[in-house]
Amino acid sequence: MRILFLGDVMGRTGRDAVVAALPGLRRDLKIDVAVVNAENASHGFGLAPDMAEAIFAAGADAITLGNHSWDRKEIIPYIAQQKRLIRPMNYPPGTPGEGAVDITLADGRRVLILQAMGRLFMDAMDCPFRATETILARARLGVTHAAILVDFHGEATSEKMAFAHAFDGAVSAVLGTHTHCPTADHQVLPGGTAFMADVGMCGDYDSVIGMGKAPAIARFTRKMPGERLHPADGEATICGAVIETGADGKALRIDPLRLGGRLSPMMPSV
After folding, report:
1. What residues sit in the active site (predicted)?
2. Is the pLDDT of residue 75 over 90?
3. What is the mean pLDDT of residues 154-181?
């Protein structure tokens, strides 16, 4: 199985780039499942239902969110009925939406997609390790599911690495989001789980993690409220990863993907 995962979609330039490129990426890379993190798609803060629909129409099988899940209030009723849109599973009980989605492919194979959110330097949350253990108690890689993918939305690379090693062999991949900076640590762990601490963002890299430079710099230099942050609107780089799994659901390889914009290009082979 070949899985495409695209990192945080940032503002209009990121949305437009992903919607334009996703159909071709699915075709050219022979993708079976495509997942997109879109928690920053609406002006950098949250996701609106019409934006989610456009990403689904372009070929996403599932969309993940993160700490900006509720910045657009319209998403609350939408997430209740759109099961392929998921938020971190370790939000407190009673939070709208679900933290996992079970997808059945045309050939009958089942794919489980989860999202967990870290707790280091992030909002107070329930334990992501315990929440994942609860879900995996009823999902077995290579038995009930052909692949299990986790989007770990977090700030600290140490927490992301610890999480990946904790579930090495139990899931196909643990892919980090949130920092908007692609890391160079993509690897298959000893137990067969693909890992990358952060796959990067889909947005303009002539920026401060996707935001316009001047207001972002002012927040550091003046230490006082100023102009509202807004997404940079130059050409986007699409960043993500492609994972190939075997019959047992474990990863055979993981390759970074970078397309367009300012970063050096990298296109996985088929």
Report:
1. 68
2. yes
3. 98
Given the residues 43, 68, 145, 186, the one annotated as active site:
68
Q: State the CATH number of the domain containing residue 91.
A: 3.60.21.10
| Residue 210 placed within a domain | no
> What is the secondary structure of 54-118 as a DSSP string?
HHHHHT-SEEE--TTTTSSTTHHHHHHH-TTEE--TTSPTT-SS-SEEEEE-TTS-EEEEEEEE-
Tens of pLDDT, residues 256-265:
999 999 999 9
Please indicate, yes or no, if residue 219 is contained in any of the structural domains: no
pTM for this prediction: 0.96
Q: Say whether 67 counts as a known binding-site residue.
A: yes
Active site residue 43: no
Whether 221 is covered by a domain: the verdict is no
pLDDT of residue 227: 79
What's the mean pLDDT in 203-215?
Answer: 96
The response to whether 180 counts as a known ligand-binding position is yes
